[in-house]
Design goal:
There is one protein chain. By secondary structure, the protein is an alpha/beta fold. The chain has one domain: SGNH hydrolase (Rossmann fold). The protein has 13 helices and five strands. Helix 7 packs parallel to helix 9. The longest helix is centred in the last third of the chain and has 19 residues. The protein starts with a helix and ends with a helix.
């Protein structure tokens, strides 16, 4: 029996198709989230490196989780103090400036007030200090976690204060430090932090502390020069105090803590 030519052609086509691997669906590529430019290359690179932090552990709760778990509860006679803030607190070697004092450092470099508010219970309230010294706001002004209104910075600081007081913790609110642009490495930090906004936030802090009857720690006035900037010899990068800067700040913090301790709960 003779097979028609057209049928042979159809059979060959079917055989060829059967030997081809099954078509896999085209994978949908998930784009890497973009970070809007701040206009500062250094800050843009910093924010890009922090994507995992911003998405996976916004408040960076993991930073002090184990240290907090290992910390014993304070004794009845212990005057525990938590220093809470950003890199200016984080790099402050408290044991060198307050030897023998039960002072605990809970600073995290680069953080803004919304991040600090997320971890405030874990890193302050649950440690049962008598006093918390809060130094925050400069990174908000710089836009480390994006643009933020001054009233939102103020609201975050107010929330931290109210949470502390609700748990019987005395509060010391510190002014933001001035910045300078006297060195090459200070220029970006200075440009990201307009002195007008620093002054505005400090004015609010001073007023809020007066109205709320809490201690205002005025680092700014002690560290500023006659041009309204941070004294050049107190910070190499224009933002973070060096040993000379912390040497000025330490007795001021000690006096503020003593004043807070003397207040009624």
């Amino acid at each position: 029996m003779r097979i028609p030519v057209f049928l042979i052609s159809v059979l060959l086509s079917v055989s060829t198709f059967a030997q081809q691997p099954a078509q896999q669906p085209t994978p949908q590529l998930v784009p890497t989230p973009g970070i809007p430019s701040t206009g500062f290359d250094g800050l843009d690179q910093y924010r890009a490196r922090r994507i995992a932090v911003f998405t996976d552990d916004y408040g960076q709760m993991a930073r002090y989780h184990e240290a907090n778990a290992a910390l014993a509860a304070p004794s009845a006679s212990e005057s525990r103090v938590v220093f809470f803030g950003d890199s200016i607190t984080d790099i402050w070697k408290l044991a060198d400036y307050f030897p023998g004092k039960p002072y605990i450092n809970r600073g995290i470099g680069g953080q803004t007030t919304p991040q600090m508010l997320v971890r405030f219970r874990q890193d302050v309230i649950d440690l049962h200090p008598k006093v918390v010294v809060i130094l925050a706001g400069t990174n908000d002004i710089a836009g480390n976690t994006g643009p933020i209104r001054s009233e939102d910075i103020e609201a975050n600081l107010s929330s931290m204060t109210e949470l502390a007081r609700a748990h019987g913790i005395h509060v010391v609110l510190a002014s933001n430090l001035p910045v300078h642009n006297y060195t090459e490495k200070s220029k970006d930090f200075f440009a990201q932090r307009p002195m007008a906004r620093i002054n505005e936030l400090n004015e609010w802090l001073k007023k809020y502390c007066g109205e709320s009857k809490i201690v205002y720690l005025d680092y700014f006035s002690a560290l500023v020069d006659d041009k309204g900037l941070l004294k050049k010899d107190l910070a190499d990068d224009g933002l973070h105090p060096n040993a000379a800067g912390y040497k000025i700040m330490a007795p001021m913090a000690e006096a503020a803590i003593a004043k807070a301790m003397s207040q009624k709960p």
